[in-house]
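In keeping with the milestone schedule agreed at the kick-off meeting, the structural modelling team has produced records for the first pair of proteins. Each record is given below as a sequence line and a structure-token line. The laboratory manager (R.T.) confirmed that both were archived under the project's standard naming scheme.
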Amino acid sequence: MTIHPQLRRSMERAVPLVRLNGDTLPGRRAEFAEQLQTIRREETPSVVTEDLLIEGADAQAMAVRIYRNLEGSSPSHPGVVWFHGGGFVLGNLDSEDETCRLVSERLGAVVVSIDYRLAPEDPFPAGVEDCYRGLCWTVEHADTLGIDADRLAIGGNSAGGGLTAAVALMARDRSGPALAYQFLGIPMLDDRCDTESARRNVDERVWNTDLCRDCWELYLGPDRETPSPYAAPARATDLSRLPAAYVLVNQLDPLADEALDYAKRLAHAGVLTEVHFVPGAWHGFTAYLTRIPLTKRTNERWLEAMAEALAVAR
């Protein structure tokens, strides 16, 4: 692999990742939670958070975390509903806490992060239905939250990017809520895992194709038939009438080609689409190497694009 110079040292220290299945998943979840505690975070003193329980599926409680920027006096702010990554099987509200703080700080946005159900305990469609339900709740409570419902975006990284694409399709097909923007960060879109980038990027030290296949099997089940586009958005045949999109792609990611293909199809369907291709980068590097220039530049570009889409004065 031709690795970006800023990522070489991290790759040299990396060890093979454990395959994901019913036996290894509990340990991997605990390890993932521990890793989150060791990452050096950017300070965002202007952002405050509030954890709430809202009504989820079958009247069960679902957790959300709300981020507000204390600076500025406007009564109405852009809104961003966020779906964390983790291959549909890992993660929680803490997984992308820094990213949500960054969005709130830089855009003055109210961010609502959704703690959706995880597979295999709750396979598809549980997670994506939770994400859609969280979006609907945000719109229903827009006035209370101080959100301008005409400036509403959804976004996420990895599986969260795939869930973003799926929720955009659901919002279109179910006649709402209306969305102004979708951020598809290194999105997990295609259960087939049969692209050139999937075949090439198999290094066990970073997120690889075997892990992608593990997650899809846990999410969809081993005896699945052709999945719904709400599970694997690459399966969608109609991408028209979707909100403007930003697609973040990392060169050394097994998901790279499916993301590029989805971006091309969005553009051909008449959707305003911007693509940022990060050279020599592996999947999810921004989550762990938060202070290197490449991460800062990558984040600044999509934040700038989202700010423009949501009419945020910079």
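The second protein of the pair:
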Amino acid sequence: MRDARILLAEATGFSHAALAGFPERRIPADAKERFCEFVARRRSGEPVAYIVGHKEFYGLGLAVNPAALIPRPETELLVELALERPFASALDLGTGSGAVALALKKHRPAAAVTAVEASAAALLLARRNAAKHGLEIEFLHGDWFGPVGDRRFELIVANPPYVAAGDPHLADLRFEPVQALVAGADGLADIRSIVKAAPSHLERGGWLLLEHGAGQDERVRRLLEQAGLENVRTWPDLARIPRVTGGKA
């Protein structure tokens, strides 16, 4: 029912309040046709966010499309934890739609925020979202730390791919870019790459914060400890699932 209301509002251009307050209002024929098309797409399993082309994240309305993952509520924990820490420079690895980088810049406007993305199409989406909100982000095209050379940052955040190849849940995510989801046989290939290189890009006292999947927290903590990071710990999301692990240089 909730999805239907969202799709109807998008098809008609009416607000949710108007739809609820005036249920007798006649829907124009072209809007009815759009709504039926939206419903057919939703029945096929396509996410609502891709159908309507936008999604809210941490108070920001973001354009979304299949070039990047749909921003999810659990990723807001990554932003909250980042904003609890002092930083004048931040690096967002695998920025996708730009959600995390834009949220950091909005709430820490004096900080220099850099965002890296390997997909040119996703990077274009992120740039458009930044322009929409008037947020100045340094966007770089490339793989993980490659585009930043030997630069160091006071904060590094990442929501990298962390689904294992062959995971049955991938069937439910078939509309989203597989390269942003799958990371090797155990889902940790990209996290390993990031953690291995992170100490060379963190300022002394800087933090690395990583989102990961359920059941991966113990292995991710071990990786951070082996990389020499301190104060390593994991934080749960609102569903009490261990979701973000971080450590301090």
